[in-house]
Amino acid sequence: MASHSRFLLLSLFLSSILLTTHIVNSADEEQNLLQQINSYRVSVNLTALKENGNAKCLAEGMADEFRDQPCTNNTGANTVPGTETQFSSYPQVLQSCHLNVTTTRDGAIMPACVPNLVPDLVLSNFTQSQYASNLNDTKYTGIGIGSKNNWIVVVLTTDTPEGNYATATNDNSSANLVSTFGLFCQALFLSVSFWMMM
Fold first, then answer.
1. For a surface tag, which of 23, 95, 123, 146 has the fewest beta carbons within 10 Å of its beta carbon?
2. How many domains are contained in the chain?
3. Interior CA angle at 180 toward 176 and 184, to 5°?
4. In a domain, 80, yes or no
5. pTM for the complete prediction?
6. Residue 27 falls within a domain, yes or no?
7. Considering the chain, what is the average pLDDT of its residues?
């Protein structure tokens, strides 16, 4: 029994090391690409992009959606314009990041598929493809990066309300207050009715 529990503990320990290594490698790849993109922008006399947590959340969600797709000319930086893959789960990814279409409209989502995410190839998939026009555009001021398997997704943001990736607010807060008050009144009426019948 003792050897079985030692084996189990050793297995858990090794699994946690492998998982941590993968998470650290993903973070390193993303941080490396951020530094390379900012170096590229500075080299063409543009300001460096600031990290945007909401854009990163969306990039991670999109990378997760792409993760099992093979690299083809219909995916990533090699995509022929107009043949981009559409995801029916995009609204759920937005919702999980507490975003909505109105604050992401002016942003750019740029997925790239590079086997083993080799750093130099990843960078060239952004700087030497149709994505280069976005990276050279002064309207973009923020960035979020996410990766999964052979996929890395860059999301660019603007300083405009339509592209700043601000967290969605509940525009119906007064309607929710009225609705909550209505439910409270119904519950009060039912409980008074119940006590009167007894």
1. 23
2. 1
3. 170
4. yes
5. 0.70
6. yes
7. 76
